[in-house]
Write a structure and sequence with these properties.
Blueprint: H1 3-21, H2 27-32, E1 38-45, E2 49-50, H3 57-63, E3 68-72, E4 79-80, E5 85-92, H4 93-123, E6 130-132, H5 142-151, E7 165-167, H6 169-174, H7 187-197, E8 201-202, E9 205-206, E10 211-215, H8 218-224, E11 231-235, H9 239-252, E12 257-261, H10 269-273, E13 279-281, H11 284-287, E14 294-298
Parallel strand pairs: 6-13, 7-10, 10-11, 11-12, 12-13
Antiparallel strand pairs: 1-5, 1-14, 2-4, 3-5, 8-9
Helix pairs in contact: 1-4, 4-5
């Protein structure tokens, strides 16, 4: 499992514990439950969904320093029906109660992202298009939400600003042409600059190799088609223009991938995929995902 993912999850769990306990105790549980009481419970799905984060539960419980054993009952990326047990926890009854809400919050969020992603992936089955997420993630949750996207069958776009060039309209608006400093940066010059920089060193840091540029029309698309970039993001293109871009790329015989983005939703994604684009990116996978309802049920041991 990814060490960076583990580090991010543990930091988030520590923050969540601080929110719940501050520097005190779970007073209700201390008052009601004997310290020697043992018990067992299962985290159970209240609705149908796709699992994500279930395999990470031991890391969550570990941050509570709890006297609990964790048994993971389903794999990641698995479809499940209402009533499916996902995890079993056993040990200190106090620790079960104190860790309940934080654990459910984290798993409910990740399963929700995976479930929505799978709905999108199902809509483009049979096409050549791959579904990608974006940086429109909950602050502090990026790696966790991106992990959940992969559990749902999606793919990860760049993680952050550090691991890929993505030239957008604001870069062109604020940048300036090297030939005419009073003119905005053209898509052609921007793409050429990034291609020249990729893989090189800047201030002793190694620049990323992936170069992508966002274009908002076929004119811009034609400017950058043969610049050697890896991906062209077709922003808010009509279906007709998406098909035209795919045809132009294929006719030129270049290996650049085409990515459709902008106003992609569950109702439109199948038609977008049918245009022949290689990639579809949507922020909806994370910013429109709702929590999956999970609960904790006590079991006899």
């Amino acid at each position: 499992m990814d060490e960076l993912l583990e580090n991010d999850l543990r930091q988030l769990v520590r923050l969540s514990i601080a929110e719940d306990l501050d520097v005190a105790l779970d007073w209700t549980t201390v008052a009601m439950i004997d310290s020697e009481r043992r018990g067992a419970c299962q985290i159970v799905a209240r609705g149908a969904g796709v699992s994500a984060g279930i395999a990470l539960t031991p890391w969550i419980i570990d941050e509570f320093d709890a006297d609990l054993e964790v048994e993971v009952l389903v794999g990641e990326g698995v479809r499940f029906e209402p009533g499916t047990p996902l995890v079993q926890l056993s040990g200190s009854a106090r620790d079960l109660l104190t860790s309940e809400r934080v654990t459910l919050n984290l798993l409910s969020r990740m399963c929700g992202v995976a479930t929505l992603t799978r709905h999108y992936v199902d809509r483009i089955e049979g096409t050549n298009a791959r579904l990608y997420d974006t940086r429109k993630t909950t602050p502090g949750w990026r790696r966790l939400e991106k992990y959940a996207v992969t559990c749902g069958g999606g793919h990860n776009h760049r993680t952050g600003l550090y691991d890929g060039f993505l030239i957008k309209d604001n870069h062109l608006a604020l940048g300036r042409s090297s030939q005419s400093p009073d003119q905005p940066l053209s898509a052609l010059e921007a793409a050429t600059r990034a291609v020249a920089m990729r893989g090189g060193q800047v201030n002793q840091l190694l620049a990323p190799r992936m170069v992508e540029i966002e274009v908002d029309g076929l004119d811009q698309f034609e400017q950058v088609l043969e610049t050697g970039i890896d991906i062209i993001l077709l922003d808010n293109f009509s279906l007709e223009d998406l098909r035209a871009a795919v045809a132009a790329r294929d006719a030129a015989g270049v290996s650049v991938e085409l990515e459709a983005s902008g106003n992609v939703n569950i109702d439109t994604i199948a038609a977008v995929a049918a245009t022949g684009v290689d990639r579809i990116s949507s922020g909806a996978l994370t910013h429109q995902a709702t929590w999956l309802d999970l609960g904790m049920d006590w079991v006899q041991t």
